[in-house]
């Protein structure tokens, strides 16, 4: 096993430098459309560069949304970094605040360390396999009562399809949030459930998956299986995350 304390500090250093870049480029970003029809901007590229340069000192391969490692390479790796240097490109381009930086360390297809940077709020959520979840320099400390109050509040996506019938059948109240900050809403007891229906990529989800489970929640696909973060095309199935295991819906 790698020295996770050292790697977590390295990821924090990378996340902090990326946050500086994103704040710097917010008013001078240029956007273009990639071959897969998704948007990318100068800020994405700059953030990716600084994260990759810092993580390179770990001698662990890096797979990023902006520089994807081929499956032929990944399938033989015990470890690799999985990063999204700017999650929420559309929000960022509109000068919204709902964007973040995502860094995860994958070991045998599952995350064992991760970081979510809520850039606009200067908030860093992180953990590795042998720690609890931290927010900035302190343990995340939310009462069970706070989680209980939001167990029927679910997160809608602003930019992806939502299954309205699912919300109605389960009598869920919805909140619309952009990007992987949905996972922060679960961690902070601002919502209790995050269902995602189709379309996510591994780099969008891995960091949040790890932090939710490490914080006593649960995340699985609709067949009740853990997600695999080393699939051939890095696509993931629909999934559902709960802030706490004990607040699952009756069908899960």
Automatic annotation (TrEMBL):
- Keywords for the protein's UniProt record, in alphabetical order: Magnesium, Metal-binding
BP term (GO), one: phosphatidylinositol phosphate biosynthetic process
GO MF, one annotated term: metal ion binding
Q: Which reaction does it catalyse?
A: adenosine 3',5'-bisphosphate + H2O = AMP + phosphate
Please name the Gene3D superfamilies in this protein's record: 3.40.190.80, Fructose-1,6-Bisphosphatase, subunit A, domain 1
> What name goes with this protein?
3'(2'),5-bisphosphonucleoside 3'(2')-phosphohydrolase
Q: Which Pfam families does the annotation name?
A: Inositol_P (PF00459)
Its required cofactor(s), as named, are: Mg(2+)
Q: Which residues bind Mg(2+)?
A: 65, 84, 86-87, 204
